[in-house]
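SUBJECT: A protein chain and its fold
Encoding: whole-number codes for local backbone shapes
RECORD BEGINS BELOW THIS LINE
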Amino acid sequence: MALTALDAKTALIVVDLQKGIIGSRFIHAIGPIVDRTVELISAFRKHRLPIVLVNVAGVAPGRTERQRQHASVLSEDFTDFIPQIDRQPDDIVVTKRTWGAFASTDLDRQLKSRGVTQVVITGVATGTGVESTARQAYEQGFNVTLAIDAMTDARTEAHEYSINQIFPRLGETGTAHDVMQLLASRSE
């Protein structure tokens, strides 16, 4: 873990902490993942930094060899954010139909119009939504930070591979506490 800095304009991106997904089976208990994310949200709000809440409302088109999750009709509240997130009117909300939050949305434009140069990413699933969002953020020129104790996956191998092999190539990794310490040091 090598978290060194947060840019003056850093945004928090919370991936897929929504009612239709939160009940899925994950390798880590979801409660502590949500708690750490909520702590990050609170810290970013305290510093008046942008919060991006991402939900997924379908899948990208095209054939795949594996059956797609969530490809059937979604429940009415599937995309609703979990209550602990406490969505605020000034939060940026992005609804995606792909794994990553940048590919088929205007997230890049929204962040750059606010002067954001760095993103901190949390959420589920580590090897799909989080990793794809991190890859796309990196490709768009953002400095990327991944709060690795505020994410999980249904698959141990995907989670571990992303954290150990992919994330260090896309940015810096650290804990939610590490991120909050860097934020707190701004006030000193």
The first helix runs from residue 19 to 22. The radius of gyration is 15 Å.
